[in-house]
Design a protein that fits this description.
membrane; signal; transmembrane; Immunoglobulin-like; mainly beta; cell adhesion
Amino acid sequence: MEARVMPEVQKRQVFFLCVFLGMSWASTEPLRYFVAEETERETFLANLANDLGLGVGELSARGSRVISDENIRFLLFKPLTGDLLLNEKLDREELCGPREPCVLPFQLLLEKPFQIFRAELWVRDINDHSPVFLDRETTLKILESTTPGATFLLESAQDSDVGINNLRNYTISSNAYFHINVRDSGEGNVYPELVLDAVLDREKVSELNLTLTALDGGSPPRSGTALIRILVLDINDNIPEFAQSLYKVQVTEDSPVGSLVVAVSARDLDTGTNGEIVYAFFYATEVILKTFRINSTSGKLYLKAELNYEAIQTYTLTIQAKDGGGLSGKCTVVVHVTDINDNPPELLMSSLTSPIAENSPETVVAVFRIRDRDSGNNAKMVCSIQDHLPFVLKPSVQNFYTLVTERPLDRESQAEYNITITVTDLGTPRLKTQHNITVTVSDVNDNAPAFSQTTYTLRVRENNSPALHIGSVSATDRDSGANAQVTYSLLPPADPQLPLASLVSINADNGQLFALRSLDYEALQAFEFGVRAADRGSPALSSQARVRVLVLDDNDNAPFVLYPPQNGSAPCTELVPRAAEAGYLVTKVVAVDGDSGQNAWLSYQLLKATEPGLFGVWAHNGEVRTARLLSERDAVKHRLVVLVRDNGEPPRSASVTLHVLLVDGFSQPYLPLPEVAAAEARADPLTVYLVVALASVSSLFLFSVLVFVAVRLCRRSRAASAGRCSGPEGHFPGHLVDVSGAGTLSQSYQYEVCLRGGSGTSEFKFLKPIIPNLQFQSTRKEVEEYPSFQNDLGF
């Protein structure tokens, strides 16, 4: 048999319906394609691209595919070429049964943008089934008194084919008594009647065997046969008669098995066995025999199996009532099955897109179709999803729906949606079906990394080891995947003089900061730099934070004594008059510490002294003062060792040696200490000679000036000088003398000199600086504070 495939487009002009985005359309009339059953697999049916006026590449680019309601994969579609092929051999009788025409609907679905084209595959019947009699042998009992022209209904043959290939004619084998009359039921079916042509004579022919042949309309025709066995009986002149020739009854499809459908009744006027009636199905089909049963005595018809309105809506039964003499009567029972809402709606998912990129505009998430196998209001449906979801259902043609996003989605707010699609029919009671889908939202790099702080303050102690971990910065990204992977880097410093690259480094993966070298608080107390956190998205997003590093002081500097100077030169000698009272300020030790805070808090302590208890050191300011009154028994020369200590942990210290010389007055010649003399003796001879020569010349010059000034002043104003230098000793003119002092008088000062009159030793009466130096103010103050010392000096 050669397959015949005939594509046909019923209407060239189609009308389009916009379902969403102004881009989705569906034609009002479906495309129709025809194929004969049993056609070989991969037979070419049509080119959909040509039939729809679309380019070949357009079908592939728009994500086209073929779907069907029953999910029967009878078609094979190639999007690249647009060819529609047969995927398997089709059996029309298996797919559609007796229904004619046999139509298999399918749809061509285009996703980008969404568009549906309806189409139908009409499966044409071929004559591949022969007529079949359920009973291969039938026995008829006919009275010999039956008049010619009487008719006898015979069993109809069954043919699974339809249309012209269905049952069309009956014939009977050649004989002298009967012929076949073919009747039409009005529903497209034919049945045979046996017609008596001549009077039967039981004494001549008691039994006849005839062959009944059923022929279909195929080319060539197929046939089936059954044996008709006719028994000629004696006269039984009353046949059973039914109260009604036609019974119509309605039965709901949920009627239980065993329930009564209808009760038929017939009567026979004969008596005895000729009046006993037996009820039975007359040549019932296999479906009827499986669904119903009849009580042969009472004529009650019962359900033998469950009814299903969606499968069969009407049953037509022929019931025969036969008496004991072999005569029979017949009636027809038509059972109409009424629908109940026993089928929940169905949801057929055509496509589902997940994940959905966040921030995308209105996007088609799912395409599906709903259906209900019931009828009437039981088949009407409504479709809905939960409230408060950013999705909306949009109806399309043929009960198709699209689930689309109502607004752009934000993955950071919600990364996954569980959507329940609920389909409810309008029957009583209402039935519903729920279909759950999960839609995930894929990430887009729309969030920059965010630091946990805008400013970080780190503290590191100086003298740290290189590569020391000093702290961390942390940034998080609300995105996911590579968009959330954060890398850290240092920003160029705002101060170009800051060597940031040699100070710190950062781990690009975790933001840990390391000091590259040892830091020195005294050189750098603090520095600031910027840190960038960037993700690995495309394009990459970043943010910045400031980091301030405070270097903490360590006690790594010992105190340094500024005064007395420690430069390796000859030590300074401090002069103290023997008349000084307790608390007399001898000198002040001045020291500094390069550290800070408590590491720079200095305290002073007298470590060693020639005579303990004579001098004391104030712990907080380093002032060296006399602890008691001086006496003649106290040694002239004193050596004091002062310890300067900071408050660090552990503490550091420095010491300084002071030389103190007790004098009767400031006019007493300076006596070098033995240590000083020894040091001078060990000095370079040339230096000694130069110093001696310079001192001699200076002394001579100074002496000459003093003499000259003294003589001049005495001659001019002897009377004027009496106010200053008065006393029984006489009057001497005052004059100014420049003195280069040592010890606490480390600078040159001018003094007004008054000599005691009549003194052969020229002893000073007092010394009074005319222009005091700032460093000498403390000594002068001490002198002024003690009246006894002023009296001794002549103040």
